[in-house]
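At this stage, I put together one protein's amino acid sequence and its backbone structure tokens, which the following lines show:
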Amino acid sequence: MKGFVLTGVFDFLEKQFDEQLVFDLMDKYGMPLGGVYSPVADYPDNTLFQLLERAAELLDMPSSKLSKILGVNLFAELSSLNPFWVGQAKNTFELLKSHDVLLNKAIEEAFPGFIAPSFNCIEINPDILEISYKSPFMPADVAEGLMSAAIIHYNENFYIESKKYDQPVDFNLRFFLRRRCNNRILTD
């Protein structure tokens, strides 16, 4: 299943930036032309991270920025593939709180064995949502881009704050969505 995601990332890089970038990536890192990843194959958990790092290097941009751009694109792709995922929620909080139940269930049925990213959410108050993001495969910057796209989709105004865990594992990260009001970020 990871090959399906990796192939999708190559397609994204071709469309968003330049087809030549993909060829340069394959050439620079010794990847075979015409089928870099088998869509149904499994790959090490850090493969997507390495792919984004290498592409960002060739684009001369921070990998975190490229990952966030990928997350925005991912939101658009997921919205078109599963409109109910976005349509069932009235705002970003509702979308993230229902993500694991609605989207991950569909992903698990379609791709058995794939561990989808999880968003464990605690609504601290109506203006602050704490999200524990967990994934062994998808970098947290991609998740941040996805959240940014959701905020734009629902026409909301939030500040995204990220906090690393004391003992980092895989790509796990805590996020806080804090509502902005009159250019002020609301706190506890």
About this structure: The first helix runs from residue 2 to 16. The chain has a mean pLDDT of 83.
